[in-house]
Amino acid sequence: EVQLVESGGGVVQPGGSLRLSCAASGFTFDVYAMHWVRQAPGRALEWVSLISGDGLRTYSADSVKGRFTISRDNSKNSLYLQMNSLRTEDTAFYYCAKAPGAARPPTIWGQGALVTVSS
Amino acid sequence: QTVVTQEPSFSVSPGGTVTLTCGVSSGSVSTNLHPTWYQQTPGQAPRTLIYSTNTRSSGVPDRFSGSILGNKAALTITGAQADDESDYYCVLYMGSGISVFGGGTKLTVL
In chain A, which residue's Cα lies nearest the Cα of B31? Predict the structure, then answer.
């Protein structure tokens, strides 16, 4: 069974940093592109970032470009999101999600990790 | 900046049929944009219903179907049930690794 489990969420002050992790199991991790998607309370889903299966290609939304970095460690079946210079508007549930193959929208989702940016 | 549009809300009677749509500001939605549909209930992660326009995810009942209608992607629910009352999101793949979500449709079954 495919499983994605996020960790690392929490409360951080504006301007601070946080790193989210996602542990993947049940599939050959390095074959699939992976996404981060977020959802602010009461708001719509927002695509954040994508990384290719080999980790060589990354893409990010304009709203996080230059502040957030997606990465992966295929030896550990893990996906990461390093978030720097956090703003109050970054407060959201962050979901790790698996693409069906290459860079296509996600089809398998984790349960999410809550990041709260507040002073 | 590309905007993906969905109806903000829709209602359907139990047993009825409803079609939700997903448009794009740049023109027409085609299969090349790999339209994908999700269902989300409060407090839960999204559940994938349809991917690549019309492929049902594992375990999704055939009451849910995806298509292209005119210049939009469409999600049709036939024989609506009470537990179909949820938020529905579409997403389009815009190329260069970028996906764009719509604003979601709140479906009421009454």
Answer: A104
